């Protein structure tokens, strides 16, 4: 416990370019950028594949690749290719990591919509797009949000690797702490990362309350 | 009027679901497609609103080939009710009902007002309007399904086993409700069911299909019961055809006699029972104004003396009908005697 007190109680850790607020902002910056790009790719793609049923193989491949890909390995690879000093080495692996949960859950969410419901929607005279946006998506929303949440939590946890290639973020506390045997810093950094993941989790649960129709939420 | 002209549907796997079907669905009446599971009822129905396109042949709505109409536009003009109701779970009941009005671009206020009207029409409490589908019973959901199909006042209604998933009591009340609605609305309704009793109860015309989507017989329900075209239809109609046929004969013309003194009534003239040596015996009643001959016969069979008690809508005794009176009317409606040459070609059931 005193390690935590050492870390969080030290006023020097709360200011300056390597203070907690600055590192937190950096961490959030990488995470948000990677997550947004991933969501912009995976949500529309998942919706398209789920709606049309074409390209389902891509989803399977993505789901398996996600389990097999070593994030750190990818990071090193991109550094070798792109060089140190840019954010690219961090963003690429994070995006690659973030896409599959969103893609898979969005796809499964849309595919999982009751065939009768899809049928009724077309039968009422909705056009393809209207079926997608007015029926399938709202009904699949809990799963789409689940995918986004899982992805966001992974990204926030994994953005720690930025420190490996000389960038900032909360990983710095851990890497630098390890290097200098300052274990209070290692633990403090880990606690911050965990807290951030919890905050993301909580944020998504709130979002769920706001955007998912009570009619859909209750039936799950 | 909806016309099928030599309509065939062959699915991609080679299954011929409907084979050269030709029939006419008259305007303003209920036409039931009935037949065993897999005989092509759903396929036939869905070709009308182009949820499925026919492989060959032609389906016309008031003369216009449905293939000339853009499917969503066509469907917005045709009410469609399916078995599981298919309500949108994320939308409130009122918005479910207003689906087609919204699609047609009505403003929200007008569409919702119309939806409220329809909820009332199908016998649902206005308080349900702001609920979500999962908060309703199966029977209520089915009523919402009917309301939704009627929202934009389409002239044609397609119903695919709409009452099959609810329990028998609810089903009977939904059927009665549909008949009541239809007597007001006079829509052109195509109703699909595998239940011959439902077909006979609801249909002004009943089309019996055999497996392979071929028309076995198309007739009014009373004719169907008395003159099944072949063994397949006879087998499908099942037992008790004679008794069931009586449902289509009104009891209005049953000759009523005065109530005998041994029929005990209360102060308002409602029957209490037949006086016997040691108490009151059971009795059966029918209302000649609204009941069928089947109800009258049933009432007669319930009384130990074979006399049915006729009552008015308040349940007060109007008179009695003995079995002789019922018999006389039965004789009048006896099935026609068929000439030797007119016996339908018998075909083995498919
Ligand atoms: N999409 C389809 N592909 C292939 N065969 C089908 C398809 N839909 C229905 N069928 C077949 O067509 C026949 C008629 O089906 P259907 O119209 O659903 O019958 P019903 O509604 O009378 O039970 C059945 O043999 C069924 O298996
Ligand atoms: Mg069917």
UniProtKB/TrEMBL annotation, chain A:
Residues that span the membrane, as ranges: 28-49, 131-150, 156-175, 182-207
Keyword field contains Protein biosynthesis: no
Native source species: Microbispora amethystogenes
The keyword Manganese belongs to this UniProt entry's keyword annotation: no
Gene name, Swiss-Prot/TrEMBL: proW
Keywords for this protein: Membrane, Transmembrane, Transmembrane helix, Transport
Listed InterPro entries: ABC_transp_perm/SBD (IPR051204), MetI-like (IPR000515), MetI-like_sf (IPR035906)
Domain ABC transmembrane type-1, residue spans: 24-204
Membrane topology of this protein: Multi-pass membrane protein
Protein name as annotated: Glycine/betaine ABC transporter permease
Domain of life of the source: Bacteria
Family label: Belongs to the binding-protein-dependent transport system permease family.
Subcellular compartments: Cell membrane; Membrane
Automatic annotation (TrEMBL), chain B:
Molecular functions (GO terms): ATP binding
Entry annotated with the keyword Nucleotide-binding: yes
UniProt keyword terms in alphabetical order: ATP-binding, Nucleotide-binding, Transport
Domain ABC transporter as annotated: residue spans: 2-237
Keyword Transport belongs to the record: yes
Transmembrane segments: none
Pfam families assigned to the protein according to its UniProt record, in alphabetical order: ABC_tran
Similarity-based family: Belongs to the ABC transporter superfamily.
Name of the protein this chain belongs to: Proline/glycine betaine ABC transporter ATP-binding protein
Provenance organism: Microbispora amethystogenes
Lineage of the organism: Bacteria, Bacillati, Actinomycetota, Actinomycetes, Streptosporangiales
């Amino acid at each position: 416990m005193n390690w935590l007190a050492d870390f969080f109680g030290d006023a020097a850790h709360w200011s300056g370019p390597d203070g907690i607020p600055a590192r937190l902002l950096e961490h959030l910056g990488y995470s948000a950028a990677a997550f947004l790009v991933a969501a912009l790719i995976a949500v529309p793609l998942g919706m398209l594949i789920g709606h049309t049923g074409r390209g389902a193989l891509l989803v399977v491949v993505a789901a398996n690749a996600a389990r097999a890909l070593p994030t750190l390995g990818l990071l090193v690879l991109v550094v070798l290719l792109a060089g140190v000093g840019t954010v690219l080495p961090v963003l690429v692996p994070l995006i690659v990591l973030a896409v599959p949960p969103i893609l898979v859950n969005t796809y499964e969410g849309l595919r999982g919509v009751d065939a009768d419901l899809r049928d009724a929607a077309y039968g009422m005279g909705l056009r393809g797009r209207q079926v997608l946006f007015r029926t399938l998506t709202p009904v699949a929303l809990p799963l789409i949000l689940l995918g986004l949440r899982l992805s966001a939590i992974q990204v926030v946890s994994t953005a720690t690797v930025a420190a490996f290639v000389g960038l900032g973020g909360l990983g710095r506390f851990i890497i630098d702490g390890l290097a200098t045997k300052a274990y209070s810093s290692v633990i403090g950094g880990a606690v911050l990362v965990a807290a951030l993941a919890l905050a993301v989790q909580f944020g998504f649960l709130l979002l769920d309350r706001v955007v998912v129709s009570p009619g859909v939420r209750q039936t799950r | 009027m909806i016309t099928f002209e030599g309509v065939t549907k062959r699915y991609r796997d080679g299954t011929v679901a409907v084979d050269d079907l030709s029939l006419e669905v008259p305007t303003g009446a209920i036409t039931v497609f009935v037949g065993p599971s897999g005989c092509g009822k759903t396929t036939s129905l869905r070709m009308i609103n182009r949820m499925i396109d026919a492989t060959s042949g032609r389906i016309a709505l008031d003369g216009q080939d449905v293939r000339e109409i853009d499917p969503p536009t066509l469907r917005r003009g045709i009410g469609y009710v399916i078995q599981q109701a298919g309500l949108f779970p994320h939308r409130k009941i009122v918005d479910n009902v207003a689906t087609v009005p919204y699609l047609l671009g009505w403003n929200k206020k007008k569409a919702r007002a119309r939806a409220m009207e329809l909820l009332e029409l199908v016998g649902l409490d206005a308080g349900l309007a702001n609920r979500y589908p999962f908060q309703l019973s199966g029977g209520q959901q089915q009523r919402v399904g009917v309301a939704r199909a009627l929202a934009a006042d389409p002239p044609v209604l397609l119903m695919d086993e709409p009452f099959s998933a609810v329990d028998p009591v609810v089903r009977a009340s939904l059927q009665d409700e549909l008949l009541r609605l239809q007597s007001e609305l006079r829509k052109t309704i195509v109703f699909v069911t595998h239940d011959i009793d439902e077909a006979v109860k609801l249909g002004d015309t009943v089309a019996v299909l055999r497996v392979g989507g071929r028309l076995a017989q198309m007739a009014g329900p009373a004719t169907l019961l008395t003159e099944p075209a072949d063994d397949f239809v006879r087998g499908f109609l099942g037992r008790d055809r004679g008794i069931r046929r009586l449902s289509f004969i009104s009891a209005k013309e049953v000759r009523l006699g005065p109530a005998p003194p041994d029929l005990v009534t209360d102060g308002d003239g409602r029957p209490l029972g037949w006086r016997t040596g040691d108490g009151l015996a059971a009795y059966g009643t029918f209302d000649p104004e609204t009941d069928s001959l089947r109800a009258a016969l049933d009432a007669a069979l319930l009384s130990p003396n074979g006399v049915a008690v006729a009552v008015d809508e308040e349940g007060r005794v109007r008179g009695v009908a003995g079995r002789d009176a019922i018999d006389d009317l039965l004789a009048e409606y006896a099935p026609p005697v068929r000439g030797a040459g007119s016996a339908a070609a018998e075909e083995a059931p498919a």
